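step: validate -> pass
step: tokenize input -> pass
step: predict -> running
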Amino acid sequence: DFALTWTRDEAAGTIRFIATVNATGWVSVGFSLGLAPHMATDMIVGSVVGHDVAIQDSWSTRVGMPVRDTIDDVTLDAGSEVDGRTTLTFTRRIVSSDRLQDVDLSGGLVTLQWAYHQTSDSFSDAHTAAGYVNLDLHSASSASPTPMIQDAGHGLVWTVAVLFMLHAARRLTHSTCKYTSRAQRRRAREL
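step: predict -> pass
step: emit ->
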């Protein structure tokens, strides 16, 4: 199970997140503007090992391990692992100075992507559960999305979905071009 709560501090221009998961491995919270998972996604990945808490501000452009941001502007507030539950608390700016690798959260509506590994704290190990949900960071203060994707093989599903959308867009463009050509021919005949 994964749960996320947040508190916006408009005066400070920050938003504080608390991610909790029933697992002892790494945890990831990502934000995108509705693209396919991992595509242009601002990700925060963290883990707790004993008393050591690690967090990484990351950017993802493909399925796989995200790369560390060139500007790390996420602040780790706390982290704990108790009775098989990992909790990470972090703060970031609503509008980040890192315009290339952070998603602007001022609009409110984002696609929240989450993932975790049940037992591994190595960020390079593939997730054991993941999912996403569209939500408005202005009108709500928590989300407990159910897993929409529970296996590491979901990349194939997204690849097929993206290819289908590209095919549909190409057909739409092609039929639009035909329509335009016919319309142009009709206008030419009328003149």
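step: describe -> The radius of gyration is 21 Å.
step: cleanup -> pass
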